[in-house]
Inverse folding.
């Protein structure tokens, strides 16, 4: 992982959190316990603070940032899907931001929400608790049932289990070559 102190602010990483070596964690960033921060994620706490709650995942190629003097906050037990952008917003506990979704400045996502893939939550938008929001601009499509919330939470829990597995077993390694060797730049691997 790449951790950078910036302007006197150092990132804080909670116990049991796994951060991929290509993730960039810069400045005023605090990540809770048992989180999963995937390859290529950028959490840039240079203008303002970024806070990630416990047991949350920030998946591949996500970007989290703020405007000056703002905060970007992700609650406990959340999932931020591959390629999502969070900018100066709040994501409530147990919510999911789908792949390639964008949540803009001062938007507030309630507790137990789902923001659908490729949605755009405009600046200043409030999404009520237990909502499914989709589209560009994102609009509330329905309230989630208890069963849908249980299914969503099970998906988030799978990332906690994945984090634990990464903590125990992930290691950088050369690939195992079978058959004919692979030649790259005139070198045998």
């Amino acid at each position: 992982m790449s951790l950078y102190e910036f302007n006197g602010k150092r990132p804080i990483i909670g116990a049991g959190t796994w951060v991929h070596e290509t993730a960039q964690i810069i400045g005023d960033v605090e990540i809770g316990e048992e989180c999963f921060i995937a390859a290529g994620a950028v959490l840039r706490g240079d203008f303002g603070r970024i806070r990630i709650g416990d047991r949350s995942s920030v998946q591949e190629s996500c970007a989290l940032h703020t405007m000056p003097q703002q905060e970007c906050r992700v609650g406990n037990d959340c999932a931020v899907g591959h390629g999502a952008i969070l900018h100066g917003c709040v994501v409530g506990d147990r919510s999911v931001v789908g792949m390639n979704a964008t949540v803009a400045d001062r938007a507030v996502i309630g507790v137990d929400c789902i923001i659908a893939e490729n949605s755009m939550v405009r600046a200043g938008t409030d999404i009520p608790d237990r909502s499914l929001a989709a589209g560009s601009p994102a609009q509330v499509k329905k309230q989630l049932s208890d069963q849908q919330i249980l299914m969503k939470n099970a998906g988030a829990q799978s990332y906690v289990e994945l984090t634990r597995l990464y903590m125990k077993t992930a290691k950088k390694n050369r690939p195992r070559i079978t058959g004919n060797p692979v030649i790259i730049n005139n070198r045998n691997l």
Remarks:
- The helical segments are 146-169.
- The mean pLDDT is 94.
